[in-house]
């Protein structure tokens, strides 16, 4: 419970309890919206299912606009939030590895746990793979020192890096996202005639 | 696209459009514009007089925080009762901002004169921190008026100045703990013996309490 626990408005026990309840809610939402289906996530990469990209983009933009306006109204202090420094080279490498894992496995780390709970064996295997990856990185941490320090841009966000106003960036980003949705939807629709009805039902399209 | 998607996209687009007209997060959180700052600098309200501060301290007014901006050495030698020592260089330290970036208390800044405290006030105000005031004349004025007040004479002697003097004399006892030498009866040409104003009476009470 972000602001409540560090402010000591919530004890450690209640913090864990709320984390547990929110976790159950999150897992339920993932399962209910079909994200434990590996084909749903893989669909983003093949172009037959736009759901995941819509969910992520919409969540990001809602938070972006919401925080920005709430900050302006003085309800929240966005300068008190933390974001790490940008190292673009390791971010690119790590993102590519993670994306590859998404396509091969069809899960993201969160959905793999949810899917494992519903009894999917491939999800359990996926979790083992995630653990192998985590421990491999931990024990070879020193070997990656050069890569980790490469491409340091400092603590910078996109509008600063582009040198434009934050509000303008938010507007442009919203437009880009909606245009992306539009064309992705067209791509998805072009797939539909080629897919069998039971596949469409399976994906909930 | 489904109808619900169109509604959501419409709302997001509207939010994004509104965002264009809002200022950057850094700019409006911490900096007030030059016009406002200049206006507030020119206002007398950012000062507190030594008399007001002395009264507040003697009354144990809990709404005041007194901050000594001088060096720790000077603070060790003498400072105003109950003052915190936050040297000028350290006013933006994270642990000190709690005193400056708030609007519950009145934080009174002082240094030897007014200029250092004025600089500190200006810097704090430019980050839009509220509730800070400068002790007018600083430690020097404090010494002249509260610790070692001069009895008004000649043209300067009026009811008002004499009452102020009595108040300061009382305050001096409070802050130094020195009992007054019984002084001669005030000058004959004084228009009238100062009627016992609430201010004076209160001070006397406070003084006896403070010394007892």
Outline of the structure:
The complex is a heterodimer of chains A (205) and B (212). Chain A has 205 residues and is an all-alpha fold.
What report would you give on this structure?
- The complex is a heterodimer of chains A (205) and B (212).
- In chain A, strands 1-2 form a two-stranded antiparallel sheet.
- Chain A has helices spanning 12-32, 38-46, 51-73, 88-105, 109-117, 121-139, 145-148, 158-162, 166-191, 197-203; strands at residues 86-87, 152-154.
- Chain A starts with 11 loop residues before the first helix and ends with a helix.
- Chain A is globular and about 50 Å long.
- Helices cover 69% and strands 2% of the residues of chain A.
- Chain A has two domains: 33-83 and 164-205; 84-156, no CATH class.
- Chain A has 205 residues and is mostly helical.
- Chain B is an alpha/beta fold and 212 residues long.
- Helices cover 50% and strands 8% of the residues of chain B.
- Chain B contains ten helices and five strands; from the N terminus they run αααβαβαβαβαβααα.
- Chain B has helices at residues 3-20, 25-30, 34-42, 50-58, 72-77, 97-100, 115-126, 138-147, 159-176, 198-211, and strands spanning 47-48, 64-68, 84-85, 106-110, 132-135.
- Chain B has a five-stranded parallel beta sheet.
- The longest helix of chain B has 18 residues, at 3-20.
- Chain B is elongated.
- The termini of chain B are far apart.
- The chains are: A mainly alpha (205), B alpha/beta (212).
- Chains A and B meet through α3 and α9 of A and α1 and α2 of B.
